[in-house]
Amino acid sequence: MSNKVFKFMFLMVLAGTTAFMSGCKSKNPNTGLYGSDAGLYGDPLLGDVPLEGDSGDWPADGDRSLFDAVYFAYDSSQVNPEEAGKCEAVAKHLNKGKGQGVIVEGHTDERGSHDYNLALGERRALAVRDYLISLGVDPSVIQTKSYGEEMPDSAGHDEGAWRLNRRSVFAIY
Amino acid sequence: MNRLLLLTGACLLVLTASGQRVIDIGKKGEGKIGINLSSFKTGSDSASHTFISVLKADLNRSGYFSVTSSGGGINVVGSCTSGGSQLRADCQVYKSASRQRLLGKSYSAPASSVRSLAHKAADEILYAVTGKKGMASAKLALVYKKGRGSELVVCDIDGHNKRQITKDRSIVVGPGWSPDRKNVVYTSYKGGYPNVYLTGRAKPLSSHAGLNASGAISPDGKSLALIMSRDGNPELYLKSLRTGLLKRLTETRRGDEGSPCWSPDGNHIAYVSNTSGRAQIYIISKKGGTPMRLTTSGSESFSPDWGMNGYIAFSSRIGGRYRIAMINPATKNLKLVETDYADYEDPSWAPDGRHIVCSRTSQYRSSIYLLDTLKDSHVALISGSGDWVSPACSP
User: What distance in Å separates residue A128's CA from the closest CA in chain B?
Assistant: First the structure.
């Protein structure tokens, strides 16, 4: 089976899984609570692809200089269309076999609690991961790491700084 | 709100020196119980001087007392002496008018732990006079940030006796206490990724791939509530601390969860979720099921802490600034704590059920404050030389 055909089938299986899972959602008891919010918030394109193993097994650092960061709206983890090209460049790189894998590092601005921002940063990293998976990157070579608001890119305290800090960074290993 | 009214009303009916007047501590500044320690004898050594000054500061900070050198409804007599490395304090507490003795106690400890001895005496005096649990012996776990890293620090609730617990030159987030007050659970990046650790234990409590954060140990000490992303999205999980068995409590593909805290009875967990479009506080049974949305006011709400008094304290962004609020989960009655223009975040109940420790950010600098929910003045506890955030008060 050629690589291309395999990738196509892989995507079809993923798409099928997603369709199956969204079908199940209507039976979920939480639907009443969350259903009305559909589409409002960062919807990972595929979603819920598990992260395997123990974090100690994975490389903890990589080269951040190769690709540009993906930026997000406030309290959102949606990959905006104008940012998607950056993910596509990374997918291309990895799909060509350049680099073993990537750590997607999720960051937030300083608003909101330190604790909650860890979850938000992780969701930003996962949204990018999901997009990379949809572009054919093997899920097992994409790790996520949320830094929350702990590692700002800009030290400022206004919207200009916050915009730069709401980001996902690619560390290629 | 009923319980709070009860607190301000019933429990604070105290007879003063005149034996007649009713004191209402609920009113700002007024009606504190005058407590006179001028007959308390101290030796000339520094330890016994420390004892009396810490004791006085604790009594004033409790919110119930006003230390005075003349008059006062309550009289504390006794002595404090240190013989070599040992400190001994005798404390007798009387109602001034009736001469009724409320407490008679002797304390002894190494002179090096004079501050904790004074805190213990302050709590016992408060209990003897008002029947209320004090906070003087409580400890704080908090995060100290300087430069790019942050470390875990533990100190007394008055901000003294600081000890730096981690020296990892890494990042520490969101500390919380074990129910036995002996250890602190926290998130650290010392292993390269965000994992949940417990002090005194080298191996992480949780280190799955992805996010492991916001660990909170149940009141019975048996399970850990935490946020993990191992299944592809940040969700709330329970982990048995004995068997390691995992149970996923939320399933919110369209949102993320954070900041779990336990109800005092250990049956429920309050946490933050942005499934509604903005971060708000929800409650879920530890057995799972449908969560209940608790907060609707404010543009966003964060950092719930469920006090022994039944109230959940949290921070809410209202009118562009963060304020501390408290809510009764049964009635959803909400009360905002009066504060100034600064941002107040990350509230944690003191064990007295009256005070809240939180961070205050002004001019981009964060310090630790003690707020009085009965409207007494707020007190700065820790500030300066870097940022102090995320205080957690021991139970």
Answer: 12
